[in-house]
Amino acid sequence: MIEIPPFLPFLIGAVLFPFLKWRRLREGLLLLIPLLVLWQLPQFPHGSFWKVRFLEYELTLLQVDKLSLVFGYIFSIMAFIGFLYGLHVRRAGEQMAALLYVGSSLGVTFAGDLFTLFLFWELMAASSVFLIWYRGDRKALWAGFRYILFHVFGGCALLAGIVLHYLQVGSLQVGPLPHHGVASSLILLGFLVNAAVPPLHPWLPDAYPEGTITGSVFLTAYTTKSAVYILARTFAGMELLMWAGAVMALYGVIFAMMEDDLRRLLAYHIVSQVGYMVCGVGIGGAMGVNGAVAHAFCHILYKALLFMGAGAVIYVTGRRTFSQLANISLWRAMPLTLILYLIGGFSISGVPLFNGFVSKSMIIAASVLKEEPLVEILLVLASVGTFYSTTLKLPYLTWFGRGKKKVRVGEPRLNMLLGMGVAALLCILLGVWPKPLYDALPFPVHYKPYTPDHIVGTMGLLLGTVVAFRILLPEIRPHQTITLDFDWFYRKLGRGLLVLSSAHFTEWERRVQERISSWVVSLSAASENPFSFFLPRQKAEEMRTHLRRNLLSLGPLFGLLFLFFYTLFFLWLS
Fold first, then answer.
1. Which helix (H) or strand (E) element contains residue 54?
2. What does 178-216 look like in DSSP terms, one character per residue?
3. What is the pLDDT of residue 552?
4. Confidence (pTM)
């Protein structure tokens, strides 16, 4: 069997897509490619394939093991769900960008060397930005520019780290890296930008809510989870990541609670949920890494389901904030969308019988095994906040508006419901029967999520959150908000640089230029009259005139002497 790199069908599909004129043929191609890759993945033998010589380097385009395969499975499944949900999209460019985005993410996942990884890393950023820009308004345009600026910065740091790493060790192989040193620090910085670890995260809640309805669904799945994959492969067990992830989990929840925009609230929860994964990678060991990978797998399904549900509301109503939805009631008009969304909400909250329960709890259990009670507390608090904001507050403010205004809306398109249905079915299936997921993880799994104490403890926290929500219900009112995050500092810094460059810096530049010009004039004069360096100007001019009068005739003599000695030297050599 010929092992075809999983990214190749997606890249070829992106090239062929514009030339396909029949709509049904395009739709069939979008659904067939992920199914083809998903069928092929279990047949891959473990090892390194597709080795290519480039200049003096050996590049490995396909490196297969259990870690890369489990991400390959979920990336392919998500591609099928995303294309099914967006099957009605007629913009060929948007579908091409999605194909390139999925293909480049798989390229990162199966890259066996750092140079190949970097190329796909940059292609991932370049293709995904169009899923934001295709929305077509000014906010999306500027959000896309800010998005790409962050990723260019991260890519530059990653490339610099790769170059230094190669100069130090002479190898480009993707594998565990040192937890110290300039090269490793730059590589880690590049990975942390894509993982949206604070304070490097503002690009995510800024850009994801501004993407197209289908584009944002793809954005939730690939960039941050590709970063989690590569962190698990290169920096597993790094204590810094454990603490950064624990803080990140609670940080995203706190900011999500303040949001008025549906998708911005969910975007902050991506920051929070990726925090669990980063924490699991930092804890390390079989339990920590397995928990991070399992949670990444489950997160892609339920977060896509949540974004599809929010996108369906925006698609049929044209409204994207709780303030705009407050005067209408949608639960009668969109009951299926509400039910499917709630399945995603129960999953992200770790409710028993849903997939988040079998993955998130594994990371918390890993923190217990590592004897880090503060990390455990932060993760549990983040879980409570997640249930409050995504499963209680968001559905209540979105579907159960207090106004009596009637709107003529209904369920979204059939393909959108089918996409949500497939994701919801997998969320329930993995929650009830986690064995297929556990068998695919990189290390043997001995963890059992369905124990009496775990179920009782989880349900106690969730019921307590429901009681708190019921008590606070009269005070819950949608209101427009402007959230100040770390991007406030970046914006202020940018404006400060603009002010500096337009005023003070320009004046400073003029003075420096005048000083340099005076130095050039002085050096030019000194080259004509060297005595000007150490004699007064008048005396220097007299010496210059005297030398010119007496030595001017010596020029030809010096030339003849040079030719004479050169001739003697040449004859001596011969």
1. strand 47-54
2. -SSSHHHHHHHHHHHHHHT-TTS-THHHHHGGGS-HHHH
3. 45
4. 0.85
